[in-house]
Amino acid sequence: MLAGEQSSRGARADHTTLAPIRKETSLATEDSASELDQLRAEVSDLQAQVEAARAKAQTAQAQVDEARAQAQAAKAQAAQVTQERRADSGGTVQPTGQAPTRTRRGWRTPVATVLIILGCLLAPVSVLGVWSANQISNTSKYVANVSPLITEPAVQGALTDKITTKITDQINVQGIANQAAKQLTNRGLTRLGTLIASFSGTLASGVTSFIHGTVAKIISNPLVAKLWAQANRIAHTQLVKALSGQKGGAISISGGQVVIGLGPLIDQVKHNLAARGLTLVNKLPPINPTFPLFSAKYLIQAQSAYRLLTTLKWVLPVLTILLLAAGIYVARSHRRALTGASLGLAVSMLLLGIGVAVARVIYLNKVPSSVLPADAAAAVFDTLVRFVKQGLRVLLVLGLVVAFAGFITGPSVTAVRTRKAFTSAFNAIRGSGERAGLSTGPVGTWVYRYRTPLRIAAVAIAGLVFVFWSQPTGLLVLVIAIILVVVLGLIELIGRPPAHVAAERAKAAQPH
Question: Model pTM?
Answer without folding.
Answer: 0.59
